[in-house]
Amino acid sequence: MSDIQNTIYAMALTRISHFNCAVALALHRELGSARAIYEHRADIGDIIEGCPPRLTAALACWDEPLRRAEAEMEFMRKHDIRALTIDDNDYPQRLKECDDAPTVLYYRGTADLNARRVVSIVGTRRCTVYGQDLISRFTTELEKLCPDTLIVSGLAYGVDICAHRNALAHKLDTVAVLAHGLDTIYPASHRDTAVRMLNHGGLLTEFMSATNADKVNFVRRNRIVAGIADATVVVESAAKGGSLITAGIARSYSRDVFAFPGAVGACYSEGCNNLIRDNGAALVTSADDFVHAMGWENDATLRRAKEAGIERSLFPDISDEELTVVNLLQTANDLQVNIIAAKTNMPINRVTALLFQLEMKGVVKPLAGGMYHLLLRS
Known about the structure:
Blueprint: H1 3-16, H2 21-31, H3 34-39, H4 44-47, H5 53-58, H6 63-79, E1 82-85, H7 93-96, E2 104-109, E3 117-122, H8 129-145, E4 149-153, H9 159-169, E5 174-177, H10 191-197, E6 201-205, H11 215-227, E7 231-234, H12 242-252, E8 256-259, H13 270-277, E9 282-283, H14 287-294, H15 297-307, H16 320-331, E10 335-336, H17 337-344, H18 348-360, E11 364-367, E12 371-374
Parallel strand pairs: 3-4, 3-7, 4-5, 5-6, 7-8, 8-9
Antiparallel strand pairs: 1-2, 2-6, 10-12, 11-12
Helix pairs in contact: 1-6, 8-9, 11-12, 17-18
């Protein structure tokens, strides 16, 4: 069966499950593919214990969802849109770790959704001059410290659009997570920015075309904003708001959450101040604070040193065995321990010890999923 057929079944599954992503993802993980779910549509209740009766009944009827998925594929071909199923290598791997990840995402753009660093910037739709200044300074500094960072937000008024525009101004890729299909842009006044983002980021959604920007969809998309990133930064927020929901979801995913403080009594700093007070977010006042808290300062320090013309040994004081690991990561970075062991012909316990030594020397950094990233590259 072709990848296109697999994708069509996955797209249809999303409609059949009525966006109960946790159940759809559990089915997919249990049976291995959307096609397998289709093949077991008549006996799914016997295979998956506790499968909701409504879903069991829905899984018996694939005709309309499959027709809709095929029509959507035609729309995608005409508009340069990709459907990323949860099995695709280009699917956001950070998001894939979440139990309610969408089985399919629709993407139009050029940015790598698995960039080395991904930061979500969220906040009020009534962003003040203070908030605008914070975003401008944060992105300016971040571009200097970690220029390969991907900025994610939601294209909404206020903090969202300010984050996207400042990212573009400072040559940082930026992706908007939308609450509707890719046949429209909401709000329409942000269309020009969205078009610019197609070549310096992209537009991402879990919704097919002809899906309206309903209120519930904005709440749903918050989990993607939280799950796709290493960290969520709240710039300004009232005591209640969507950005606080996103921050809570990010914490539930064990992601880092940061908030800029504001003046006591300031309406649109109250939510941030409360997050900090209640240990729901770490206080951040600059990109330098943020980079340090995230443990990204090794790369930032190296960049500063290079810009200042300071010479340093690329791989200081490392053994021959360590150099073997380094040489491998030079050619194929971001590898799991077992892959490194297999390719270097060394026992896993020895590789683990070598990686720990290299981490202490600031040469490698551990990533999620048992991956290791080479920090200093020639």
